[in-house]
């Protein structure tokens, strides 16, 4: 089966006063129909820009998609006329944004925000759209949906609004949903509810999903495959299983260590990633993670490591020393045991 | 407030309030309860508007008919607000003047306001060179005081009610566009605009259906201020002889010329049109303030 979405060597840059920022610097990955893929990375790693590039929503100026292909359902989205691209947005690809507080229009009712999409893409009449909106609200677990339709976003809690966002994203039966940090702004208890809801709905409806997050805990449970991004590039990719149990890039290892875990001893120290993300205007030819890397050697400064298969097929890492990274982990595991 | 009624009472209040939100009459009652001052403003403006519309039935005399037998009659039984130096009934002229004032006031305010709002929001939405060019054009227009620009336009197009509307509309466009753009710039940054893009909506729809409603609050305050300003500007133009022309009834005209000469001997000639102007402008801005609070859904429920 061909992949639903195939991103090939995508480059997006922003011209700023300080120079050109290569926010997305040559990214390739695929999403199969019905599959959930995670894109993980810290702030400024280019995750969100990457998602907006797929949708062709990069503000230009200052941003620009420089090169690459975004094949969706057999078509290159980058080559579509704007008119057709608009039809793809919202109908074929839905988006759930980070901030449910501000992603809904405060002066439009909940119902209007759902029906408007249906009217736009499916030419639905107002009554049909309204019926569908009630269904959708029930589907995302909003009780008393008939009354909710008439309410405004400020009358709903954060979790509830994110449910509405999901309903909007699902309204036109899209093939893919891009969720940009869908739970970051929510309470921890609500986070789990929302993620469970998204998981069950996407499974039931056979919708593929890209979850963009900095939370590896989210990834473990909800994604089948993971792409780890650093400074605009994918540094490691593989199944969630492989990334968790056999990380080969020092950045992935560092990220995993920085997540608090309940299965560790209580006094175990949390190990944050040292240093801060690199200044994207000042990248040289070498590995961008080098200044923060325990494994860095001279070679890392001169050449950028390519993504290469490590371990099982489909598990890729961009590190000259992925072998040593794995060995070091084995050692610590043994010494701990 | 004094007695805390337990159990069901608050819920009933809620449903009652909800029901009221859904009927137009209910909304008006709600508004009147919460904003008495604004309601008074609205009533004043409405009174003048109704007076203007029904002038033919309300006015006891023909406003343009001279009656040299009763010149400068003080307010009394025959002429409740007196007559001017040509014997024309002041009350009748006020009523017909209200028609002129309302046509010019609302016409120019609504026209200039809407054009300015759409341009302002569009300017903020697209940004870049479009924004730059449009704002510089606004700068040029704003460099002239309202009345000067209106005078310039009138001297090009000529006098008369319709031309006065246009003359006052043009200087109002940048005034509205500028303020609305500032609000729209803030709105532009809020993710729901990008979210609307991600849902595949076109530029026109996003500007008109998603951004415009979010700048309606500042727009409506502006609009109400504009109604007042436009009425004032019309009065000024007419007073200067470049607006509405005699013998059409207009408040500014009534203050003109001999009204000044007779200010001490027959003050009613100047007082009543002046009062009409003051009351209308005040009413318009009182109503505008109240409307702003009422239209914001966040303020509405509190």
Commentary on this structure:
The complex is a heterodimer of chains A (337) and B (302). Chain A is of the alpha/beta class and 337 residues long. Helices cover 35% and strands 22% of the residues of chain A. Chain A contains 12 helices and 12 strands. An 8-stranded mixed β-sheet of chain A has the order 6-7-8-3-9-10-12-11, with helices on both faces. In chain A, strand 11 (308-309) and strand 12 form a beta hairpin. In chain A, helix 3 (110-122) packs across helix 4, helix 4 (126-139) crosses helix 6 and helix 6 (158-170) runs parallel beside helix 7 (188-205). The longest helix of chain A has 18 residues, at 188-205. Chain A is globular, with a radius of gyration of 21 Å. The termini of chain A are far apart. The longest helix of chain B has 37 residues, at 90-126. In chain B, helix 5 runs parallel beside helix 8 (161-189) and helix 6 (128-142) crosses helix 8. Chain B has 15 helices and no strands. With 302 residues, chain B is mainly α. Chain B is globular, with a radius of gyration of 23 Å. Chain B has a domain at 104-302: MetI-like fold. Classes of the chains: A alpha/beta (337), B mainly alpha (302). Chains A and B meet through helix 2 and helix 3 of A and helix 9 and helix 10 of B.
Order of helices and strands of chain A: EEEHEEHEHHHHEHEHEEHHHEEH
Instruction: Tell me the quaternary state.
Output: heterodimer
Number of helices of chain B: 15
CA-to-CA gap between the ends of chain B? 16 Å
- Give me the secondary-structure category of chain A: alpha/beta
Instruction: Report the sheet-strand fraction of chain B.
Output: under 5%
Order of helices and strands of chain B: HHHHHHHHHHHHHHH
Number of strands of chain A: 12
Strand order across the biggest sheet of chain A? 6-7-8-3-9-10-12-11
Briefly characterize the structure.
The complex is a heterodimer of chains A (337) and B (302). By secondary structure, chain A is an alpha/beta fold.
